[in-house]
Every structure is written in C-alpha cells, then in structure tokens.
Amino acid sequence: MTPRQRIIAALELQQPDDIVPTFELFGLTKELTGKDFIGLDGLTGRELESGIKHNAELHIEVAERLDYSAIVLGDIPVIKELVRMGVDKTYLLTHKNGDGTWRFWREGNGYPDSFEETCLRLFTEPDEFKRELDRATDDTIEHMKPLIDAGIEAIFMGADYATTKGPFLSPKMFGEFIAPCLHRTVSGHRENGAYVIKHTDGNIMPILDQIVACSPDALVSIDPTAGMDIAVFKKLVGDKVCLGGNVDMDPLMSGDREKIRKSALYCLKHAKPGGGYIFMSSNSVYPPIKIEDYLLMLELREEYGRYDRQVEIPD
Q1: Residue 227 and residue 311: Cα distance in Å, rounded?
Q2: DSSP assignment of 87-102, as one string?
Q3: Is the pTM of this model over 0.85?
Q4: Per-domain residue ranges for the chain?
Q5: Which of 94, 193, 306, 314 could bond 70 through an S-S bridge, CB–CB 3.0 to 4.6 Å?
Q6: What is the DSSP track for 191-253?
Q7: Are 96 and 72 in contact (CB under 8 A)?
Q8: Beta strand pairing status for 162-163 and 166-167?
Q9: pLDDT by residue (tens digit) across 196-249?
C-alpha cells in the first residue's frame, strides 16, 4: 500500500494490509533535515517560484523520511505544486485550520471577547452568539473550499473543547451551541470533497457521543494527560470513527524514553487491531521535543505497527 492508501483505509474504518498510518502536525523539520521552510509572503517572480519549489520538496522529504501518510500544509501555491508533482497520489494533502467552532473560545484573531466574556454571553446574548457561530461556520466552509479545489483532501479541525478536568461547557450547552456548528462544518467540508479529522484536547468523555454523532472521519489526539484511554475509546467508538493518537506528550517532552516506549506500545496494542487507527502523538511534535525521542516513537511503529505483528507491553 502507498502511504495515502493506508490512511484512507484507516479513515474508512478499514485495516491497511501492512502497517498503521502515521502523520503529525510536525515542527521539527530543521532538526530532522537541517533545512527549514521559506516564508513566501512578499516574494515575487523567480524568488517566489524558488520558494514554492523548495517548500514542496521539503514537505516531500519530511514525509518520505518519516513514512508519513499525510502532508499538512496551507499555502495554495505549494498545494498546487505538490499536485503538479503527483504527490497527491502518494500522500493525503491536509490543511490544519478548518474549524469554525474556534469562535467559541479563541481570543484574538479578530474576535474581541475574552474566554470569560464569551462564556457570559452564552447567558446574556445566546441568540446573537449563535448567529456569530453560524457566520464563523459559513466563513470556514467557504474559506476551505478553494484549498480543497486546489488539492487538499483532508481538513484538520483543531478547536479544543475541554480542559483536563472536563468540557468547557456542560453537555447540554455543548449540544445547544457547539454541536450544531460542528456538525455543519464537518458536513460542509465533506460535501466539498474532503475527509475531516477532528482534534480536541482535554477530558471529552461527557461530550464524546455528541462529537462522534457529528460524523468526523477521525477523532484525534485523545489526551492521556486528561485521563483519556485509547483502549476505552476503541471499545466505545472505534466502530464509528477512526482514532488517532495518543502517545503521551509528557514523556515525549521530558525525553523519558522508557515511558515513550510504554505509551507507544500501549497505543499500538489496543488501537491497532481491526484498523481504523492512525498512530500519532497526543498533540503535535514541536520543541522542546527532541528529534531522537520522536524517532524512537516511529521506530516502535515500524517494529510493532505491522498488522502481522503482536504487541507485548513491557512491565
């Protein structure tokens, strides 16, 4: 199977014929390759053409070296260059900012409310707030369409819905304010031709059923720091949604290689069987994670992520 075929099989709740797919929101490119992406803003002419080519080739190099099934990017010229090169036949081109429900809590980005003010408005101006969420949903679907038309095949929706102690909103309020917009965003992206990968940190157990009912193709990153156990998720919803995660960020950040090993093997043992699984960290891979510790995680996938290999977790 090609990397792209593996992740599509997982997103469609099937089992790849060789090894679990993997990818990340990856921020250790320079540590891995000695090179970095070029900012394209302000470039013109040959400099712009050179920058687009450089960034496209670097995306491919990272994906090849890490055996990724998806390339995460956002610049339409780079997307088009990758499509021109035929990379969309090998990797699932993915965009990471397609979530209209950001409006619920995201201070800044043109939104004046603090988190506290936003929560107050749920009681003082509920109808106006719903209208704002509806507009944000419409804007997000519309904004993503040109990227999908350019070659993006999956949208990574990144709004968080919970702290480690539980959801920002009660299940009832989540169902009233957030779930309708989440469902409409997912449906809009899918109608426009993209898979949808939904991320949220925190303890989402009280709203898990509502998130899954909105029909994303995958749910990631399943936060172990909030007590989220991927084995439990597999039993509860693994027949309804592809799962991605949830190698613990804490040992990845601290460099505790024995705990990295245990967490990675736990994920593979409990989430790999039957397919419908993407091997990932429980958030994203950026400093202060060391590249050698992340590569250990991928070495364990290479050894134990194959579907003909049983996983034994050390004591």
Answers
A1: 22
A2: GGGTSEEEES---GGG
A3: yes
A4: 3-32+67-304
A5: 94
A6: HTT-EEEEEE-S--GGGHHHHHHT--SEEEE--GGGT--HHHHHHHHTTTSEEEEEE-HHHHH
A7: yes
A8: antiparallel
A9: 999 999 999 999 999 999 999 999 989 999 999 999 999 999 999 999 999 999
Rounded to the nearest 10 degrees, the angle between the axes of helix 126-150 and helix 115-124 is 120
CATH fold of 3-32+67-304 reads TIM Barrel (3.20.20)
Tracing tokens 């993997």 back to the chain, one arrives at 22
Give the tokens for residue 258: 């024995």
Strand 195-200 relative to strand 166-167, pairing: unpaired
The distance from CA 237 to its chain's CA centroid, rounded to whole angstroms, is 18
Token look-up 């309020």 returns: 173
The answer to whether 271 and 308 are in contact (CB under 8 A) is no
